Amino acid sequence: MSSCKEIRLILGDQLNHQHSWFKSNDTSILYVLMEVKPESEYVTHHIQKIAGIFSAMRNFAFELEENGHKVAYFKINDTNNRQSFAANLKSLIDEHGADKLSYQLPDEYRLDELFKVEFPKLGVEIQAFNTEHFFTERQELKEQFEGKKTFLMESFYRKMRKKHDVLMDGEQPISGKWNYDKQNRNKLPKAHIPTTPKLFENDVTEIVNEIDAAGINYIGEIKPKAFIWPISRAQSESLLQYFLEEMLPYFGQFQDAMSNEYWSIYHSRLSFSINLKMLSPHEVVKQAENHWKRNTDTINLAQVEGFIRQILGWREYMRGIYWAKMPEYATLNFFNADKKLPQFFWTGDTKMNCLKKAINQSLKHGYAHHIQRLMVTGSFCTMAGINPDEVDQWYLGIYVDAFDWVEITNTRGMSQFADGGIVGTKPYVSSASYINKMGDHCKGCHYSYSKKTGEGACPLNSMYWHFLARNHDKLKTNHRMNMMYNVWFKMDTAKQKEILDQADQYLEDIENL
Ligand SMILES: Cc1cc2nc3c(=O)[nH]c(=O)nc-3n(C[C@H](O)[C@H](O)[C@H](O)COP(=O)(O)OP(=O)(O)OC[C@H]3O[C@@H](n4cnc5c(N)ncnc54)[C@H](O)[C@@H]3O)c2cc1C
Ligand code: SF4
Question: How far apart are CA 138 and CA 410, in angstroms?
C-alpha cells in the first residue's frame, strides 16, 4: 500500500455514507475502522449487538473501498490488532509516515475524553470533525435552556419543527395542532393482527465464530445464519421503506400497545440503523413527512406526527441533555436506590408475565419497544428501588440500539427519574391497571392484576404504593403526583399497612417473583 499523509478514524457508530469526507477520493487519505476488545467489553453486550455492529462496519469498509477510498480494517482477532484506538493508530501513522489524524466527534462522553487525552500524544496534527448526523449541535439544547431549571421537551420540539420546517404551515403547525399524543394510546383490538416485521436473513456465522474465538463475554441469543437486523445502508433503506408503506398508517395509534404475541407491533425497528448512522434522521423525518403528504387518504396526521416527534423531538432532546449534563448525569441517583437487579433480568425466568415477555424478547432479539422499556422493565426497577448503575448496565448491554448518549438519558432520566426531573416531569411507574389497559399480558399471568394484597396479588400493585409512600418526602412538591398522593392519604391506615406489608414481602423475595 502506498503511503498516506492523513489517517481518518471511523467509529462503529459512524457509518455515514453521506458524510462530506466521502464526497471525493484522495489517495493520500487512509480511512481506518477497528474492532477493539475494550469497546466490546465495557459492559456485557447482547451477541446481536456485537455481531451487528461488526458486520455493519465490515460492510461499510468494503463499500468505501468499492467507491475508490483507501481503507485499513482491524478485525477483532487480527494479529496486528493492538486492541486500542491509540495503539492501532500509532502503528498506521508510523507505517505511512502520516502527519495528520482526523476523527469524527464521538457521541459518547467516555470516548470524547479518551480521544482528547490520547490523540495529542501521537505527535501528529489532530483535527476533529462534526459527524454531520444530528439536527442539532452538541451544546444547542443547553444554550436554549440557559438559566432555566427544567428543559421541557415539548418547547424544544416545537422549536425544531419551526427551525427545520417539518409538518408546518408557515409559522403554525399543519392542521393547527402540535401534538396528537392523546389519540395515540390504544391497545390492539381483539382480532387485529399487526403487519409482520421485516426481518433480514444475514449470515453472520463467521463473525460470531470470531467473537467466540476472541473470548468476548456476551448475553442473549442469535441465529447466525438468519441475523434479523440491517447491516448495510441498502438494508436500512429497505427497512425504512417497509416501515413507511406497511407500518406508518398504524404507528401512532398503537405506539403504546403491548402484546403477548407481537414483539414489535408497528414500531419501526430503525433505531439500530439510525444510531449507527446508516440512516440519517433528516432523511427519515423528510421521507416520513413526504410519504404522509402523498398518502393523506390512508395515513392520518396523528400517525406521522407521533413518529416524527420521536426522532426530531425525543432523540435530539436526549442528545442535548446528555451533552448538557455529562459527566455528572451518569452518577445521579435521586431516590438513593441501592438494590441489586434481580437475576431474572438475565434469564427471563419470572412468573410476572409482562416482565417475562419483555425480558425474553430482549434476550431473543436484542429489542423491546419503548413502552416495554419504560412501563414494564423500567417501571419495575424504579418501584423496586434498583440501583440505577445496575439498571444502566442492563439497558446498555441488552439492546442492539444502546449507545451511552441515548441509553443513559432514557434509562437514568426518563425511566428511573434518577435525575430528579430533568428529563421527565414525574416518575413513570405503573401498577397492573396500566399494563392491563394497554395489552393482554395480564391474561394468563400467574398473578391477578385486580388484587393488591393476598394470595396471587400482582406484585406491581403493592410495589406502586410502596414506591410512592417511601418517596413522599422527595415527591411531595411535584404537583403531577398530587392526585395519586390524595388517593393514598385517603386510604385508611389499616389498608395502607396491608399494602406496604405485601410489598415488603414481595421485595424481600424479589428473586422469586
Ligand atoms: C429505559 C429506556 C432505555 C432506552 N434505551 C435506548 C437506547 O439505548 N437507544 C435508543 O436508541 N433508544 C433507547 N430508548 C428509546 C426508545 O425506546 C427506542 O429508541 C425505541 O424503542 C427503538 O425502537 P424503534 O426503532 O422500533 O422505535 P420507534 O418506536 O419506531 O420510534 C422511531 C425512532 O424514534 C427514536 N426514538 C423513539 N423514542 C426515543 C427516545 N425516547 N429517545 C431517543 N430516540 C427515540 C428512535 O430513533 C426510533 O428508532 C430507550 C427508552 C427507554 C424507556
Ligand atoms: S398481573 Fe401483574 S405481573 Fe402479571 S402481567 Fe399483569 S401487571 Fe404483569
Answer: 17
